[in-house]
Amino acid sequence: MTNLDLHDISRAARTYGVKAFYVVTPLDDQKSLAEKIVSHWIRGTGATYNPIRREALELIRIKDSLEDVTEHIRSQGEGEPRTIVTCARTHQGSISYDRFREMLNNGGPCLLIFGTAWGLSEDFISKADYVLDSVRGQTDYNHLSVRSAASIILDRLFRVETRNSKLET
């Protein structure tokens, strides 16, 4: 987890209307760091310095485990969330962005899960309800930062299609 991950993912989440951005780590030093960063921007001087950033970082919820996250979602009265994991590797049976968008439109909570560093373990991935199609570029190189992958995926799921008029020159 990095400072940039917290800022960039929360800003992308706010832009695309995501309800919450959960940061999950059992490590006390990582939780403490995340709490310090979030506190600065939602209650400290950062809140008055940049209220737009505060609005984004208010989406962050820091939890010890995935079980804590699912319990928090259930406690909001929305039911059991379906888990959709992301992975840079291709997985047989993964779902498309169109299929995931249909699930989102049909209601019920969905929990989109990203990993950092070496990604999510195969064991963790196998326990998810779904694996989302990987983000692929035009080359064999596929090592995006989590914040880049999150922004791309959120855009693929939630972008508003607009037609650009021709620019006058």
From TrEMBL:
Keywords: Methyltransferase, Transferase. It holds the Pfam family Methyltrn_RNA_4. The keyword Transferase applies. Residues 1-158 form the tRNA (guanine-N(1)-)-methyltransferase C-terminal domain. GO terms for biological process: methylation. It comes from the Bacteria. One of its GO terms (molecular function) is methyltransferase activity. The keyword Methyltransferase applies. This is SAM-dependent RNA methyltransferase. It comes from Desulfonema magnum.
